[in-house]
Each structure stands twice: as structure tokens, then as C-alpha cells.
Amino acid sequence: MLPPTINIFEKAAKKAGKILIRDFGELENLQIESKSLGDFVTNADLKVEKSILDTLNYYYPDFTYITEESGIIKGNENTIIIDPIDGTSNFIHGIPHVSIVIAKMVDREITDGIIYNPILNEFFWSSKGRGAWCNNRRLRVSNRNKLSDCLIGTGLPFGESVYNNYQIEIDNVLRNTAGIRRIGSAALDLAYVASGKLDGYWEKDINLWDICSGILIVKEAGGVITKINGEKWDVDCREVLSSNNHIHKELRKKLSLH
Ligand code: 2AM
Ligand code: CA
Asked: For the whole prediction, is pTM greater than 0.85?
């Protein structure tokens, strides 16, 4: 049986997922606006977020909400974080690597989180202490311990977020691993680390709504989450390094050579 919070998140995500799927099938009618260079919002993002908020407000009218599209809605100390579509660029281009993210945070700790890809019908979830799951399958990070065998996810910077030296990081990782994947949804990158598909993942300049659920899901699947320099991650960090634990130190070194 799903924990009660996850049950409610599932209800909200699956209802909103129907809107996402409908719009994914009619991309020619999509209205797209640019928030900044490379960062887009569509009418689907707004509709999906509204649907999630409508469902959650019924169950949790007094909570605080932190959302990608509506900003912060102030309430009590219980906080829900929402990204209606993580992977909006993929969505716009008809690439099915998109996800709905909903997490609960109490005292700056993520206690429950879901990542739902309605197109591939993959529902990832975790509650603290309850393990990590995709649909009915328990998740476990990979066992690979040789960095040279490992597939690593990242997000390439885009537009104004492009930072100096990112090519050096990419170069170091490419030279020492089996390859890099750029999936385009940070939430799915973390879900794939938890699933043992990717062995590690790092990204800089990232928002909490992209990674909130994934942080808990990776930890509950036996993985590690830190800052890129190996220090403790907290909810104010705008970067993340995650892995199956075995390769963490070595991967960190490849990212800290400059
Ligand atoms: P978003 O779709 O919710 O904006 C991956 O690198 C992360 O960066 C995603 O979680 C994605 O979140 C965000 N992002 C924003 N603009 C992007 C772009 N043009 N290309 C790729 N990712 C982008
Ligand atoms: Ca988004």
C-alpha cells in the first residue's frame, strides 16, 4: 500500500498527466513563451501546474507551495514543491523524456517525493524510510565500481547559465567513463541513477523543484547525494552530485580538476 502522502501525490500527478499527454499529442497547437534564453514555458506547463495545485489544495489547503510557474504560495511549515513539466524543452520537441515532480519538505528535509513520466507510464516514488520504487518495482542503484564502466548523466548548461570551464568537466568525465547522457530532465536523471540505469549524475545551476524528489529517491535506493565538491547537500544547494556510492569519490575528483 502506498503511504498516504504518495497516494495523494499520485492522484494529483496522474490527473495532471492526462493533460500533459493530450498536449504532447497536439504539439502544433502549443503556445510557447521564453522566460530567458533557452528557458521556455508553455500553456501545458501552466495547465498541468494548475491541475496539480487544484488537487493538492483540496487535501492540503494550509501548506506552503513552491512551484516553478506560480512561485511561492505562503502557508504553514509543511511545504510542497512542484515542477509541472521537468524537461519542457524535450516536451516542446516531442521527446518523451519529461516528468511531473511533486515533493514534500518539512524542516528543510525532503520526506516524500514522486517523479511521474506519463508518456512512458513510469511512476517513481519514495517516502523517507520506505525505499524507492518505480510502479511496483523496488529500485536499487547500480553495482558498478569501475568508473571506466560507468554511464554518467549531466545537464549541459544553456543560454545565460553557461559557465566557464564546463567543457573541462565534460572532457574529464568523457575520458574516464563509458560515456555521458544528457537526458534533459534532471528529475529523470536522478530517477535513472536510483534505477541503476545511470551510475552517476551531476549538474550545476539547478532549481530545487527539478531535483527535490530525485534526491530522496536516490538516497532511498542506496545512492549518495552531495555537493560537487563532496560536501553535504542541503535544500539551498543549486548543484548536485549523485552516484551509486562506489564511484562517488573518483567521479568527484574528475569534476574538481580546475
Ligand atoms: P525544466 O524543463 O523544468 O526547465 C536539465 O538540465 C534541467 O534544466 C531540466 O531539469 C530542465 O528543467 C532545465 N532546463 C531549463 N531550460 C533548459 C533547456 N533549454 N535545455 C535543457 N534543460 C533545460
Ligand atoms: Ca519545468
From this structure: yes
